Amino acid sequence: MEREYSAQKQTLDEQKQASGEKSYTLKEYDDIGTVKIADDVVAMIAGLASMEVDGISAMSGNITNELMSKVGVKNLAKGVKVEVYGKRVKVDIALIVEYGYNIPVISQKVQTKVQAAIQNMTGLEVTDVNIRIAGVNMKQDQ
Question: Terminus-to-terminus CA distance in the chain, angstroms?
Answer without folding.
Answer: 67
